[in-house]
Amino acid sequence: MNRKLTKILFVLIAILIIVSAVAYIKNPGLDSGGKNEGNQFSDFSDNSEYTKRSEDPTDESSPEENPASSETDPTPSYDETDNDPEENNKEADDKAGPSDETNSGDSLTGPIVLAFAGDVNLDENSKPVARYDKENKGILGAFSQDLVDEMNNADIFMLNNEFAYSTRGARIKEKSYTFRAHPKRVDILKEMGVDIVSLANNHALDYGVDALLDTFTTLEEAGIDYVGAGRNMERAKAPVYYTIGDTTIGFVAASRVIYAMDWYATDDRPGMIGTYDPELFVASIKEAKENSDYVVAFVHWGIERIHEPVKYQKNLAKIYIDAGADFVIGCHPHVMQGIEFYNGKPIAYSLGNYWFNSSKRESGLLKIYINPDGTFDVQLLPVMNNNTYTYLITDEKEKEAYYRFMTDISFNVEYNKDGFVTEKQ
User: Fold this and answer.
1) Domain 110-423 carries which CATH code?
2) Which residues of the chain, if any, have pLDDT below 70?
3) What is the domain partition of the chain in residue ranges?
């Protein structure tokens, strides 16, 4: 019996040895811990990420500027200790998004987008505010969704704040129109995505110095910057700067329409700066240029309800650009005026009413794209005001009519079907 068991044991051992030998011959790398298979996954993951970025139309960078393949990026696209490669690939794709790079201040692969609009009036007795309250839909009761998206998606959005935020002060009785909003209305600007406003206009002091001081405080507490006015002359003429990636943009503002002499800021009096004599504003532009790569000059000027800029507007615009301004943006006429280029720099003489009253008039959202190579593109989005509702024109025939109108009132420029504006050569 013992002899039979011994023979059976020898046979089993022999079979086990033969099976092990065959397995080793078929897969000699089995004892490597699966590293070959793991390396194949790593290569696949890296190459997939590179392909996704390369096909993304919003990413214009070259592989040298934005390395993602395993040959150029030594960092693996997944955590080797994690067992969920699909989740890791998703995280890698999310981190590669251009918006994250913009927010982080790193080098940008796409353009910086500046957006500009004209006159806004949030007076408590105004028809736009009455509509806002009646609709009870927030900003979408007053603006179309696509236009709200454009405003909020811009890196910096600026407009003309043509009223005071306050519950104090007395209106100037001699003025035909005076505008004051409750400080809570500043939330409307936040819904619109506004980053900075000009207070250099002919209504910021309609209710006196106390109301102007409340305006400064309201905007500051809301995190919205302002230019063109201040608690003293030093603040009123001071540029405001934004740095996005490696690019700094300076903003300054002034008014050529000022109601009274005591509206001017002094060393110890709140107010605004004027540009009847451009010397002071030119100094602000030069200061901004010394400390930034691009300068925006936002100006209140012109004659109301006239599509043609007057001679002084053209003269002043050239003076501002010669002093260092790269983009000159105008408002006050309450209607659109044309666009012109001077020394390659755009001048938008007036962007009209953006949300001001109940009239039906053309408006516009001006977008300036500052490209990574230092060039810039100018685009005017077609906007219409109609019965206190401001919307982006999307009908093709209406867009064509809008750009024909803008071509007629502009100077030596061309608009393509998407609103990009170029100087005729």
Assistant:
1) 3.60.21.10
2) 1-108
3) 1-32, 34-96, 110-423
